[in-house]
TrEMBL record:
Pfam families recorded: Epimerase, GAF_3
Protein name according to UniProt: Nucleoside-diphosphate sugar epimerase
Record InterPro entries: Epimerase_deHydtase (IPR001509), GAF (IPR003018), GAF-like_dom_sf (IPR029016), NAD(P)-bd_dom_sf (IPR036291)
Membrane-spanning intervals of the chain: 329-348, 360-386, 406-424
């Protein structure tokens, strides 16, 4: 089964993902990694780096049929929601609507939404119950409240089952201490780095701290429950900030605590009533604050080294602004250096080369290297140098203003500088646009390629399943073909093959039931079957159960005196026969095979119903008028199926005829029929002489059978050659 977890690389999401993975689900994650971390998930899964509001999410749903969607991705900072409400609503409202809509479109069974205690605002009727009015005080709380309404509406309008959990303060391993984080992870972080703990207020303010694995447990349970609506998810226990510090102090010494002024909007007490979720979801928090803190502490301790290396990475990152500054001013420095070189060359220039204007080279090279901005600077510097040269040659500054040659030279500098700079600038921005385009295309390609591979994998897997499936269409077709006969005897002997091959079992037996349901006779069986030829129903608890209940019997206790499974075969509402199977591999002893057995026996029942209906309709043509003797054609067909059963399953049968010099069977058919079982027949053979056909009777039984007939004055012989 597949589950999609949005925000699965985040704090709560990664624990939810762990839980589903442990329960055997295939886990899929959508996360834009804005606050999440891929390293939080260590097992095999499929992750998509996508924002929940992105239209590409549809491809993820199209390629996978999800059983449940757990929507945790959100902008989860109250401060950010106040500073940038638009960003908050993009993730928390548009993102939710996108995923909710896709869940409905692609027929997801359950949608779980992470709401928050923030929807209650400053309501002081603690412990807060679900039915209390909501009045959020931040855009974050508002977006969660709106989210709950969307979930409710999607259930009403489209029948998508949705459940919303209002989390209290969640804490535990992997919670970030950056930004707002949770107070517990911030304290843990500061305690480990020997820093002062800051408490806003006197520390007596209370919160309802819930351990993250308890949250994951509730979400997992809800994913397969029939519950929907809104539930608080909390411990219903108040714990003050001072109590948290005290508990942490028992594990690691707290260096210093500074109490600062209470922050605006901080509520003094917060606790959510959790009776509803406990009662209806059969869930209860497993971890008290003591044990939860210990587990969190152990995780922080274990990850200290990692966090330290992360800190050094952060200090390395702090160097980046200097690098950026260096990068920014480098072109100016290089430009000035080139100008100094140009000035030096100009003044030391050999008179032979004085016709060459080095400043033009300088402007062109700088323009090519750095584009417009630096080329204009190079032009300004070159004009300055040119005027300075003229002044050194003894010209008056004012006279230069009237010199058209000077203006012409300045115009050339400007022209070269602007043309080169502009051309290079255009070329650079075209290259950048092409690179951006290429990056976007590459990203799109990677995404579609990933989707394509995934769809291929699913397709291959399905194809393999169809090929390997024992009940594929091809097989079912051949099975129904085998049962096509209109002769019940044929249907019975084909059934043995059919059941053997569909159920992959060694031993199959079919018993017919007499009209009083007192006896059952073996009519067809496989080679390996070692059961009795006839059963007295009263003595056999298993068969008695099948006949009374009319259902599939499964030998769950593995009793040695009963087959592994038995199923009744009905005709006209009456049980006509029972199929028993044995010798099944242990891994097939599952609900799937029980259902398969039921389907197979239903197939047999309908084949038999057809055959019996045919026999009833053609009764007058089957029997010699007024006698129980089968006509030649009907008898030949039954004999044929007996021969087949003998060849394939070694099922014996015996044919008897009147002894030499004795009156023929035709002379007293009713008396003889009265001595036969339901599975035996009297019929006309090829020579139009009446013979008796005894099912499931071998040579070993012959003497006893002949004796029984002889005791009634009927002398019979075994028909040679027929066997
Ligand atoms: P988190 O920041 O650790 O996890 C959020 C995850 O969602 C991150 O991996 C982030 O990268 C991802 N994400 C954010 N915006 C996204 C977007 N637009 N598209 C795709 N991915 C995006 O936060 P968390 O504490 O694990 O919270 C999970 C959920 O529980 C959130 O919905 C939050 O509002 C809710 N919640 C948390 C608490 C708590 O105490 N931690 C309390 C109440 C409700």
């Amino acid at each position: 089964m597949k589950v999609l977890i949005t925000g699965g690389y985040g704090f709560i999401g990664s624990h939810v993902a762990d839980r589903f993975h442990k329960e055997g689900y295939e886990v899929y994650i959508i996360d834009n990694l804005s606050t999440g971390n891929r390293g939080n998930i260590t097992f095999k899964h499929k992750g998509y780096e996508l924002a929940v509001e992105d239209a590409k999410c549809e491809e993820v749903f199209r390629a996978n049929q999800f059983e449940a969607v757990v929507h945790l991705a959100a902008q989860a900072s109250v401060n950010t929601s106040i500073m940038n409400p638009q960003l908050d609503s993009e993730s928390n409202v548009l993102g939710l609507v996108n995923i909710l809509n896709l869940a409905q479109k692609f027929k997801v069974k359950k949608f779980v939404f992470a709401s928050s205690a923030a929807v209650y605002g400053t309501n002081e009727h603690i412990p807060l119950k679900e039915e209390l009015p909501c009045d959020p005080i931040s855009p974050y709380g508002l977006s969660k409240w709106v989210g709950e309404s969307y979930c409710r509406k999607w259930q009403e309008l489209y029948g998508l089952e949705t459940i919303c959990f209002r989390f209290s303060n969640v804490y535990g391993p992997r919670q970030s201490s950056a930004g707002e984080g949770g107070v517990i992870s911030i304290f843990m972080d500061r305690v480990f780095s020997g820093q002062t703990l800051y408490v806003y207020g006197d520390g007596n303010q209370t919160r309802d701290f819930i351990y993250v694995e308890d949250v994951a447990d509730a979400i997992f349970r809800s994913s397969y429950s029939r519950l929907s609506g809104i539930y608080n998810l909390s411990t219903n226990t108040e714990c003050s900030v001072n109590e948290v510090i005290e508990a942490i102090g028992t594990m690691q010494s707290v260096r210093d605590i500074t109490y600062a002024d209470r922050r605006d909007g901080d509520i003094s007490r917060s606790v959510l009533n959790n009776e509803k979720v406990k009662r209806e979801l059969d869930w209860s928090p497993m971890y008290g604050i003591g044990e939860g803190l210990q587990r969190t502490y152990a995780w922080f301790e274990l990850n200290r080294a990692k966090m330290e290396s992360a800190t050094s990475a952060v200090s390395a990152a702090k160097l980046t602004p200097y690098r950026q500054m260096f990068k920014k001013y480098m072109p100016y420095a290089e430009n000035l250096l080139a100008f100094v070189l140009t000035a030096w060359l100009t003044f030391t220039q050999d008179t032979d080369y004085s016709a060459i204007d080095i400043k033009l080279f300088y402007i062109t090279i700088i323009g090519i290297m750095y584009g417009n901005r630096q080329s204009i600077l190079a032009v300004v510097l070159s004009i300055g140098l040119f005027i300075y040269q003229k002044l050194l040659d003894g010209r008056e500054l004012v006279s230069l203003l009237y010199d058209t040659n000077v203006f012409f030279q300045i115009a050339i500098y400007l022209f070269i500088g602007l043309v080169v700079g502009y051309a290079i600038e255009r070329k650079n921005s075209a290259i950048q646009a092409a690179e951006r385009n290429k990056d976007e295309l590459e990203e799109k390609y990677d995404f579609l390629n990933g989707m394509y591979k995934e769809v291929r994998e699913v397709k291959d897997e399905l194809q393999l399943r169809i090929l390997n499936s024992g009940d594929s269409f091809g097989k079912i077709y051949s099975v129904t073909k085998e049962l096509e006969s209109l002769e019940p005897e044929n249907v019975f002997s084909s059934t043995v093959n059919v059941v053997k091959s569909i159920m992959s079992v060694q031993s199959v037996a079919i018993y017919t039931v007499n009209p009083y349901r007192t006896y059952m006779r073996l009519i067809a069986h496989s080679n390996d079957y070692e059961g009795q030829a006839s059963i007295r129903v009263e003595d056999d608890a298993c068969m008695r159960w099948v006949l009374n209940e009319g259902k599939v019997f499964v030998n769950k206790d593995l009793a040695s005196n009963a087959p592994l499974m038995c199923a009744p075969i009905f005709y006209n509402g009456e049980i006509k026969a029972v199929i028993a199977i044995d010798g099944m591999a242990f891994n097939k002893f599952s609900l799937y095979y029980q259902n398969l057995f039921k389907v197979t026996t239903d197939l047999v029942s309908s084949a038999l119903a057809r055959a019996f209906a045919y026999i009833e309709a053609t009764e007058s043509q089957r029997y010699v008028k007024g006698t129980p003797i089968l006509r030649k054609e009907a008898f030949a067909s039954i004999l044929e199926s007996k021969k087949m059963a003998k060849t394939h399953h070694n099922t014996p049968f015996l044919m008897l005829c009147a002894a030499e010099g004795e009156a023929g069977i035709e002379s007293r058919p009713d008396q003889i029929a009265g001595m036969l079982r339901e599975t035996d027949y009297i019929g006309l053979n090829e020579q139009e002489k009446a013979v008796i056909l005894l099912s499931n009777t071998g040579y070993d039984d012959a003497a006893r059978v002949l004796e029984r007939f002889a005791s009634r004055g009927i002398s019979l012989n075994i028909v040679n050659g027929e066997l």
